[in-house]
Structures are given as structure tokens and as C-alpha cells.
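job 3f2a | input accepted
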Amino acid sequence: MKIKTTCAYCGVGCGIVATSTGDRSVHIQGDPDHPANHGRLCSKGTHLGETVGLDGRLLHPMVGQRRATWDKALDLVAKRFRDTLAQYGPDSVAFYVSGQLLTEDYYVANKLMKGFIGSANIDTNSRLCMSSAVAGHMRAFGEDVVPASYTDLDAADLIVLVGSNTAWCHPIVYQRIRARCAAGATLVVIDPRRTETADEADLHLAIRPGSDVALMNGALAWCRDVGAVDERYLADHVAVPDDFWASLGTGHDLWSVARTCEVPAVELRRFYEVLAATPRTVTLFSQGVNQSLAGTDQVNAILNLHLATGRIGKPGAAPFSITGQPNAMGGREVGGLATTLAAHRDFAPENREVVQRFWASPTIARKPGLKAVDLFRAVGEGRIKALWVMATNPAVSMPDAGRVREALAACPFVVVSDVMADTDTGAFAHVRLPAAAWGEKDGTVTNSERMVSRQRALFPLPGEARPDWWIVAQVARRMGWKSAFAYDRPADIWREHVRLSRYENDGARVFTLPATGGGNAGYDDLAPFRWGGTPFADGRFSMPDGRARLMAVVQKPLAAPLPNWPLTLNTGRYRDHWHSMTRTGLAPRLARHRAEPLVEVHPDDAARFGIADGGLARVATPQGESVYRASVVTTQRAGELFVPIHWTDRTSTGGRTGLLPRPLADPHSGQPGFKATPASIAAVATRWRGFALFAGEAARRPDVLWATRVAVPAGTLWELADERAPDGLDALLPAGERVEAVDPARGTRRVAVLKEGRLVAALFITERGELPARDWLIEQLSAPFAASTVLAGRAPGVAVEGGAIVCACFDLGMRTIVAAIREQRLTDVAAVGAAIGAGTNCGSCRPALARLIAEEKTDAA
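job 3f2a | predicted structure (861 res):
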């Protein structure tokens, strides 16, 4: 049976056709009829079928460390929240929710907190990724509306990517961009790092982190000087502060901006010239803009440019905030942020009265609640007495995560609703509630372009897992509000959400949802649709006077390096991983592109601080420290470091990026500034390095300085290193027949454990020697008999290793691809795709393929 649903990952919102192949297995394909992706999927979406098993799942309610019935767990949660409210008032409780929730889940949680508990202390991990865009939209448009769609990319003549490694983070959108560029559009990438996206750009501006306001203000000043400002559009549709143009008069000339941004003036001029000459411009921005202490101002600098040049509400002309999570937009629509009420309403008295009347609620939150950073600070200070965390892992993802852990440990009552039994946050929970996972959920999500799609269940609920909306509604009913939360199915919630979007709206807000006809069957069959049409096409905005606002924003001074913290730390995503890897960490093919957390260091800084490529390095900030594998690369700006966000206590002893950023946030949006933390780096000396391989899971995590878990077919791999003698490693190995080789001269030891001739574990360590590639040994876990050369780590005879994975969709390594390029004389990416398939699915590896082809041409010359 084929089921149409929506991908679990980023905000692109790709449609999927899932075909069941067993009780707990499914074949995944892109939905050719879905307007977001037209059948394409990235590597993560392609391998969703590898993530639907039940390993590690939380399948029963837990009170403390003991299994409980649903009635007992729900009664306890309701009682503790009710008692806390009675003793300390509504602001003593809080919810922290997630863009992984469906819109129906979000709606019920927001309704309970704001309309019945009476506090706005519900915030979402979307605060960490897109809240600066929300604040910027509100200031400029009067409403949180993304005034763009993917079809604008198809019509644009200039596409500007700001702070977005789109090729990795939104691959399907990137393929749309590349298709448009092939038809003649120009691509400009603005990013301090030379990412895979920047590799294929017509122009890459590697600006200094945090200098975006200067760049965009300079662009607007240039446009005004050359006559590219649309004076008629401004006069008819935009309110311009009296001193706005005067604020651009000083420090925004070409040379001053080039100095501030630290880019060559000739490249900056090239950008400004093509920008001024190209009316059909889409500026797509993401975390590099939002995750800043000046994120809202940076957003408004982009919006100013589009409003002043009339590049909004027209085909191929729009500012485009592209969201990170699958339902960050749905959460914004229902009021999942602490700073909004519901259905794009704020806390103005008239809005509070309307929503309270619609909900028939006993109370209503009177003011915005605590944003994420302030919320966890309040938990640590004892002002929040009861906290419910849903579908997210703040002990990993919040800035200054060590302090967040201290707050969770001190909180009198913590509830965690999650899919996984053991998470870094769940370790602090008094009650853990088993939630439905992606393959079991039924509801809706909204993607980056305001496209609402259905998510449909592929499997029955396992164990005692339940949907998040059901869990929240059951607690609400037990707190005394039975009739208000008497939902039987997600369709009931959806219809209420639709009615609220339309209730006393009268065109005041763009956000309004069409009524879904056909009852429950109509909801079940709901086809993807985009609300809002083409926002602002008529030049009317969601302000009382109907006019948009230009915001005078000023470039903040950029801090000089500090003596003890001479570097700047940037954080972000890897191509094939997602958040804290509770899903992607289960997929062996996704683990191979970046198997370990790396700190990327410029060669000049590596030489300055004694960092060796492939060695270990300790990154420290005033908040904490963590160890990473070092990667010395010229794509990183000197003076700056880059680390990934994905690794947790469950997957590594290092790579704990959440420990490092400052708990500082943008003053308008409350979004933390993850992109520019003062930091230092130092080499970490080790006595030995190695790896351990297991059929299935290891009995316990290795107790060494460096231990990183990697999912592999039929088992797990742990990369290891330590400064101590490797004396306790034998205890990791299971019982069985041992085959061993020792080379004292190199400090090398190799052990294989066999059962009935099959390889069940292996341990390879060395002090001064070489270690074999892992691929062939990993294959041995699935072989009926271990080869006689197992301790050599390679097959009998000559074997060519595939090398580091480049194309995760087709599991193709670098050596395999290079061999094909050489042997078949392949001269471009399309030829490589035709020959071996690489780059023909999601395309996120295409920049890497182009680089390999260029290197081969250089070597041949």
C-alpha cells in the first residue's frame, strides 16, 4: 500500500510516497506530484526507511526509572502542574516545544498554556533558528509572513544566498536554484565560509561574521545612488522614517563597507552592480543571518533593500526566510512562540479578547512569555517550578548547555515527551511520556513557502506510544478542562485551528486558512496547498495603515579578538545529519559522510596553535569546552572555527557544541547568537588511537578520552583515542573465539572475536602505526564467515577501498568516483551521474563531484 506523506526533516517540506514492505519497514520515494519537490529527495529523506525501527524507542510511560500506566503518569503530571499553579501562579510553569511537532500538536499545547493555564511561558526550539526572521517580518510587514514561494526561485534572474549553505541544508531547494542558474540566473553567496554552496556560485563574498547590516545598508545606498530605488512604490506602500536616508549617508560607501566586511572592494562592487541592475531578485537567508546578536536588524536590512527597490509581491522578486525544521512555520501559525498569541495575533487587548472568546477559556495570557534562553534561566533561578519538554533536546541544543543541565537538575518537576528512551534531556525527567514518531504521526505541517501538507501514519502506534496532541489533551482534561480539549482525532483540532485563523479576521491578516470540506474524509484526503496567495502583491501590508515600514538599522561595532579567546566560533549543520541525531544516527549510510565531529581550522591558525590535521583539538569558550577531530581546511576564514551541532552524550565523548556558545540573545527576537562566540583551540596529545567494531551495539560506551559512535550496517563502530594506556578495552569485547596480533614496535594490537566463524567484534589500536580503512571490516559483520585476513583489515589479494563517502544517496566513496573519472574520462558532473549515478538524486554532492573533476584535470595537465 502506498501512502503519501511529508518528509521529517527540513523546512523544504518534501512530499514522500511510502510503500510498506513489512511490519516495520518501508520503501521511500519522492512524491512526483508534490509541488515542493516534484519527486526529488535529499540523502536524509531518501534513507528515512532506515530510521523507522524500534531500537532505543520509549514505548511505555516512565515515572522515575519505573514503568507506569498512562493513567498514573498523566494523573501525576496533571496534579503536579495543578498544585504548582495553585501555590505559585501561572508563570511558575512552562512548556518547551519543537518544530518536530505537527501543527495539531502545537495547537493543543499553545491553547492549554495560554488560554487555560494563563501564561505565555511556552516557547519552541524554533526560537533558536528562525525567530529573528519572525521579529523582522513583524517590524516591517506587521505580520510574520514569508512573502515568497519556491516558484519565485524559478522566475528570478539573481538569487542571493545569505548565511545559508543551501546545498547541504536545503538540497532540494538548491537543485531548484541550480536549474534556474543553468537557465541564466546569477548566484551570489554571502557566507564567511567557503561552503559547497559557495563553490558553485558566480560570486562568493566571504564577509566577516556579523557585518551583514553594513553589507545590506551599503547595497541600499548604492541602489539609491544609481537610481534603482522605486520611489513610486515607497510613496504608495511604505512608511519611511524621516532620518532613514540620512542614516545611510555615512559609512556606507563602497570602500567603508569593504573594510567593515573585510572583502575586496572590486568583488563588493560587482555584487552591488548586478544587484542594482536586476529587478527580479530573490534573497534567501537562513541561520547565518538569524543566529546573531543582531539577527533582527540583519533581517530588516534585507527587507529594507527589497521594500525600497519594490522587489516584493512580484514573481521572482522577494526576500525569502527559509526555515530549518519541518514544521517551524506551523508552530508560528498557531502561536507556538512565547511572543505571539495564536493565528498571527499578538497580545494587544483586542486580540486577547477575541482569542479568549473563541476558546471560551477561563483566562488568557496577558503578555508575552519567557523566550527560550530566559525560560531556562528562570528554571535555574527557581522561578519555573514545573517544566514540560516536548520533542526536543535542550540539554544538547541550547547555548551554554552545561548551565541548562544544571537548571533541569534543580527543577522540582520535569516532564519529557519523546520518541527515544534515553536522551540527554530525558536523563533529568521525573516523568517520561512515549510519543509517536514520524512514521506513526497523523496531522499537518507547513513548509518554508507556507505550503500545508498532510503527514500520514505509515505504521500503527508501537507499545504504548501516543500522539503528542493526545498526551497534552489528556493532561488538560485531568486539570479540569474536559470539554475544551475533547478532541477525538487530529481532524477535530485542524478544523478548530482553521476557524480561529478566520475568526474576526476580515482581511486584517494574511494568515487565513480555507475551510476543509468533506468532514474527516476531506481532512484525510487534504492535498498540499499554500495559504496567503502572493502576499503583498497589492501593496497592502498588515499594518493599521496598510503600509510596510523601513527600519533604520545600524551596524554594531565588531569586537576585536580577546587575549584569552583569540578566535571566533561558528556552529552549524552537516549535510547528512539532523539535530541531535536521534533519527539520522540510526541510518548507517548517513553516518559515513561525516562520521565524527570535526573542528574546521584554517591552516594559518593550525600552524599558530599547533593543530595537526586529523589530530584531536580542544575548543574552549568562557562557557565550556569540548574535544573534536581537527580538519585543517582553506575554506575556513583565518581567525575563525566551525563545529557541527549534532553530537550528544549518547554518541560521543566530544563534539558537545551546545556547551560552547554564550547564553546571549538578540534583544528583539531572543534568538541566541550561535555564530560568533569568542573561543580558543589547543592540540590534545594522545598515546594511541584506534577503533572498535561490534555486531549490534557495544555493551557500554568506551571509557576513553575520544569515543565517537558511528552506525554501520549490522552493527556499530566506535572511533577511539586516549592519552592513557589502553588497558581496559578488552572488557568491551563480547565472549567468543579470539584471534589476535601484536606489533610491539608500532604499539599496535589487533583483536577479532568470532562466533561460529562469524565476526562479532574487532578492536584495532596503534601508537605509531597505521590503521586500516573500516569499510571492508564493516562488511565482514554481515558475512557468513570471517575472511582469513580479518586482522589485516582488508580482503585477500588487492582490494580498492571505496574511500570517504561523497554521495550518500548511492553510497559512493571518493576513490570509487575518482576511479570512474579516470577510467571513463568523465569531464563534467553530468557525465559522472550518467556513468555511476552520483549527484543524480538530491544533488547535494554535486559541488564535491565538480571539485574532484577539477582536481583530476589539474593532475592530468
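job 3f2a | The chain has 29 helices and 34 strands.
job 3f2a | closed
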